[in-house]
Write a structure and sequence with these properties.
InterPro entries: RNA_pol_sigma-70-like (IPR039425), RNA_pol_sigma-70_dom (IPR014284), RNA_pol_sigma70_r2 (IPR007627), RNA_pol_sigma70_r4_t2 (IPR013249), RNA_pol_sigma_r2 (IPR013325), RNA_pol_sigma_r3/r4-like (IPR013324), WH-like_DNA-bd_sf (IPR036388). It holds the Pfam family Sigma70_r4_2. Belongs to the sigma-70 factor family. ECF subfamily. The structure is a single chain. By secondary structure, the protein is mainly alpha-helical. The chain has helices at about 5-35, 40-55, 65-85, 95, 110-125, 125-140, 145-150, 155-175. The longest helix is centred in the first third of the chain and has 32 residues, at about 5-35. It starts with a helix and ends in a 16-residue tail after the last helix.
Length: about 190
């Protein structure tokens, strides 16, 4: 190892030693600013130390204490992070949100139960009514298309759908499902 390489190695060791000596005080400083986010604080400390290591050749490590530089960089990183987290996309204001609650997450267990009740109620319908209700309301096919497919007049499909929905509602209400769970089952065809 040459004398120049030895001096560089000594400089790198000295730089590393100075950075590690400031790590705990830097961590406390950042933690005080960030509050209850220890992982975010650790990220800021690591980013600050990395920037110091990358800038080691440009910093005056002998005549000026590095602590003030580290604290300034860490503070700037915390401020930048807060600005980034609170940013609002252009064109959207707080008034656009109106304090609305987040959309409820569907309960899949409830959906499975509802599906079982509906299938059970569909089985009570006459086959002609069940077919018309399933094609029009469950599969979303237009009444005219169902009439062509089944070879029936459109009025017959409308009648079967109407009577099927009425029977289906009666069955569901007798099982305690009430009209609140059947508002999507209208008697009209599309």
């Amino acid at each position: 190892m040459s004398l120049i390489d030895h001096d560089r190695a000594d400089g790198a060791d000295r730089t590393l030693g100075l950075l590690l000596a400031e790590r705990d005080s830097l961590r406390r400083f950042v933690a005080d600013m960030m509050g209850r986010d220890p992982h975010g604080a650790e990220d800021v400390v690591q980013e600050t130390l990395l920037r110091a290591w990358q800038s080691a050749g440009r910093l005056d490590w002998r005549d000026r204490p590095i602590r003030m530089w580290l604290f300034r960089v860490a503070r700037n990183l915390v401020v930048d992070g807060r600005r980034r987290d609170r940013s609002i996309p252009v064109g959207i204001t707080a008034a656009d949100f109106g304090g609305a609650a987040p959309a409820p997450v569907p309960d899949h267990a409830e959906q499975v139960g509802d599906r079982r009740v509906l299938v059970s109620a569909l089985r009570t319908l006459a086959p002609a009514h069940r077919e018309a209700v399933a094609l029009v309301h469950l599969l979303g096919q237009p009444g005219d298309e169902v009439a062509r497919r089944l070879g029936l007049p459109p009025g017959t499909v409308k009648s079967r759908t109407h009577h099927g929905i009425r029977a289906l509602r009666a069955t569901l209400e007798s099982h305690g499902c009430g009209p609140a769970g059947t508002e999507h089952l209208r008697g009209e065809t599309r």
